[in-house]
Amino acid sequence: MSRIIAGAAGGTTLSSVPGSSTRPTTDRVKEALFSRLESYGILDGAYVLDLFAGSGSLGVESASRGAARVDLVELAEKAAQVCRSNAALVNKVLGSERVRVHRTKAETYLLRVPPGLAWDLVFLDPPYPLEEEGLAAVLEALAPRLADGAVVVVERSTRSPEPAWPAGLERFSEKAYGETTLWFAEPAAKEDDAQE
């Protein structure tokens, strides 16, 4: 059973995706992750994107903790239905439509994003079978759509290699929690910025 840990909707029980097609982030990892994000001061008023959202638990946790907008992107129909249910629950508690669900492929969604929309925080928790090349393609499509100072968090199996970061993104940290590793990246400094 998953729940929202803190914020306006803290303690709210979330629906989980039936079967074993998704791999929910454990409460232990989620608590450590959000503790780190809170220390960065990135959540309040943030635009958040949760790609390969599964149940949407990371995205709705962000909304509970003050994110202004959260987009949950999930292709699998059962998981997208759970995302809709969890989004509706949190939106009701918050009294706003902060959380939106998009049933589509991650890359397709990124290619259709309206110009000018940039995210402050992005979660990517792709299914383990996703090849490294597929993850690299999503990261490449994502890089130009990030706000200055954005944080990208990639969750993978500890046995998986480090993601191939495209031009425009660079890793600044990683942390392993048992079978899960979180990789943290940020927009790369532009040449103009580096010369100042």
TrEMBL record:
<dbReference type="InterPro" id="IPR002052">
    <property type="entry name" value="DNA_methylase_N6_adenine_CS"/>
</dbReference>
<dbReference type="InterPro" id="IPR004398">
    <property type="entry name" value="RNA_MeTrfase_RsmD"/>
</dbReference>
<feature type="compositionally biased region" description="Polar residues">
    <location>
        <begin position="12"/>
        <end position="24"/>
    </location>
</feature>
<keyword id="KW-0808">Transferase</keyword>
<dbReference type="Pfam" id="PF03602">
    <property type="entry name" value="Cons_hypoth95"/>
</dbReference>
<dbReference type="InterPro" id="IPR029063">
    <property type="entry name" value="SAM-dependent_MTases_sf"/>
</dbReference>
<keyword id="KW-0489">Methyltransferase</keyword>
<protein>
    <submittedName>
        <fullName>16S rRNA (Guanine(966)-N(2))-methyltransferase RsmD</fullName>
        <ecNumber>2.1.1.171</ecNumber>
    </submittedName>
</protein>
<feature type="region of interest" description="Disordered">
    <location>
        <begin position="1"/>
        <end position="25"/>
    </location>
</feature>
<dbReference type="GO" id="GO:0052913">
    <property type="term" value="F:16S rRNA (guanine(966)-N(2))-methyltransferase activity"/>
</dbReference>
